[in-house]
Specification:
CATH architecture: Alpha-Beta Barrel
Mean pLDDT: 96
Helix content: 40-55%
Structural class: alpha/beta
Bound molecules: phosphoenolpyruvate
CATH class: Alpha Beta
Number of strands: 8
Strand order of the largest sheet: 1-2-3-4-5-6-7-8
Number of helices: 12
Distance between the termini: 18 Å
Largest sheet: 8 strands, parallel, barrel
Length: 253
């Protein structure tokens, strides 16, 4: 396959530093020999630096779950792109549906965050996805088109090379309802077509598109068998080494 599979675990607001270190040690051990899949974990902010230290010598990448677009200043409670780079982050998750739903994230703020992240050399996991009512109203493709165009506005082809898209239907996140491989593939193909239209054939072929939404060791293989699914963004099942490592080792399932 031309695109290296990429599995990332989004720990959300889970794990104290002590718990995060324990899970990191278990993952290092369980994934020691995995070479043909890129793996990232996204602990909460408080655990980033200790986890970075623990990951030294491992190929598991560190990711964070959000950032603010300004470089520094009077923005109480926010964290800047450079601060996150400094503590060892390679990736940042931007535009997760929980941020859109609970914290007022819009396509415009997502776009500002993406630009700020790429500017300091952080790679981006850019999340998009429709809600259940949007799907039921037949709006899935128009929502995806709006989110892709809005999130990537003003970015050039060179910058998009450092970006991964995560298609996460909101109705599948944390609900135990996974999109069928066919439902996911249909949207992934559409996302690639959008990239082709906005940028080029080559770029559309190279950008990795992850699926997210109740991914488990049981359903990962069927999803990864789809032509346009290049990996997964995993929530709940990334909180235990056993389930996350089985997802990463999907080829052996
Ligand atoms: C997520 O939040 O990115 C996610 C996919 O969660 P879950 O796997 O728990 O559905």
């Amino acid at each position: 396959m031309r695109r290296l599979p990429f599995i990332a675990g989004n720990w959300k607001m889970n794990k104290t530093v002590e718990e995060a270190l324990l899970l990191t040690r278990e993952l290092k051990e369980a994934l020691n020999e995995v070479k043909d899949v890129e793996v990232a974990i996204a602990p909460p902010f408080t655990a980033l630096y200790p986890v970075f230290q623990e990951l030294k010598g491992s190929s598991i990448r560190l990711a964070c779950q959000n950032l603010f677009w300004e470089e520094k200043g009077a923005y109480t409670g926010e964290v800047s792109p450079l601060m996150l780079k400094e503590v060892g982050c390679r990736y940042v998750i931007i535009g997760h549906s929980e941020r859109r739903q609970y914290f007022g994230e819009t396509d415009e703020t997502v776009n500002r965050r993406i630009k700020a992240a790429l500017k300091v050399g952080l790679k981006v996991i850019f999340c998009i996805g429709e809600t259940l009512s949007e799907r039921e109203n037949g709006e899935t493709f128009s929502v995806i088109e709006r989110q892709v165009k809005g999130g990537l506005q003003g970015l050039g082809e060179k910058e998009i090379e450092d970006l991964v898209i995560a298609y996460e239907p909101v109705w599948a996140i944390g609900t135990g309802k996974t999109a069928t491989p066919q439902q996911a593939q249909e949207v992934h193909r559409f996302i690639r077509a959008q990239l082709r239209q906005l940028f080029s054939d080559g770029l559309a072929e190279d950008v990795r598109v992850q699926y997210g939404g109740s991914v488990t060791p049981e359903n990962i293989k069927g999803l990864m068998a789809q032509e346009d699914i290049d990996g997964a963004l995993v929530g709940g099942a990334s909180l235990k080494a056993e389930s996350f490592s089985r997802i990463v080792r999907f080829r052996e399932m």
